């Protein structure tokens, strides 16, 4: 299926407007990056977390604004369906792109569990760290145990947490198997689990130019995505999954099934 995605990209007609999009978007991105550093230092600190800004805090308002602006600079129109649950909740989403976290943050700031490699990505890794991302070394049992402990602690403190139970990003043509162990954190913290379906494209179809290609680097994908035509970035907040003690697998399967249904993939 990876080759199919790459073939679809290669077979597409020449995009003559791509240079124009680079000319328009890259300066906007640079300006946004320049604003982000002082903004992060101003907003992402304990004091800002206590300052109220309407119905939220100054810190969370700035994260939402900055994330939404970043997503839009990449030519994405944000379309939300449903409502995110308030309070402490474990959001579980399908994973397509490095933009997923920004898209989610544009709706509600969340402490995400992400692969440790992101911490080393230029600028993005620094912002993720400042926003409270919990980094996990994939393949390490010790790291997973530590991550689960931090997730439970944050949920019990009343903070929302987001995870990608597939364990890696896909190509948007299907939803991979959800690993069940991370659902134990919701049981231990006694919080709700809300599935979230993500998609990038028009006419309710995933655009193959957004996900990573086979062995594609972050920088290569970054350059491709910022030059893509305008498209929708969909985020669907779905019906919560009831807690099922001693049945994490059932919670994982039901969460995945609701995301598959929302994206119209059928029973795959």
Textual characterization of the structure:
The protein is α/β, with parallel strands linked by helices and 268 residues long. It has a single domain, classed as Glycerol-3-phosphate (1)-acyltransferase, CATH 3.40.1130. Helices cover 44% and strands 16% of the residues. The protein has ten helices and nine strands. The strands form two sheets. It has a seven-stranded mixed β-sheet with strand order 3-9-8-4-7-5-6, sandwiched between helices. A two-stranded antiparallel sheet has the order 1-2. Helix 6 links the parallel strand 5 and strand 6. Helix 2 packs antiparallel against helix 4. The longest helix has 26 residues.
The number of domains:
1
| Helix segment tally | 10
The average pLDDT is 85
Structural class: alpha/beta
Topology overview:
Blueprint: H1 2-11, H2 18-43, H3 46-50, E1 52-53, E2 56-57, H4 58-73, E3 76-81, E4 89-93, H5 100-105, E5 111-115, H6 124-130, E6 134-136, H7 141-156, E7 161-163, H8 184-189, E8 192-201, H9 218-226, E9 231-237, H10 248-263
Parallel strand pairs: 3-9, 4-7, 4-8, 5-6, 5-7
Antiparallel strand pairs: 1-2, 8-9
Any key phrases for this structure?
10 helices, disordered N terminus, Glycerol-3-phosphate (1)-acyltransferase, single chain, 268 residues
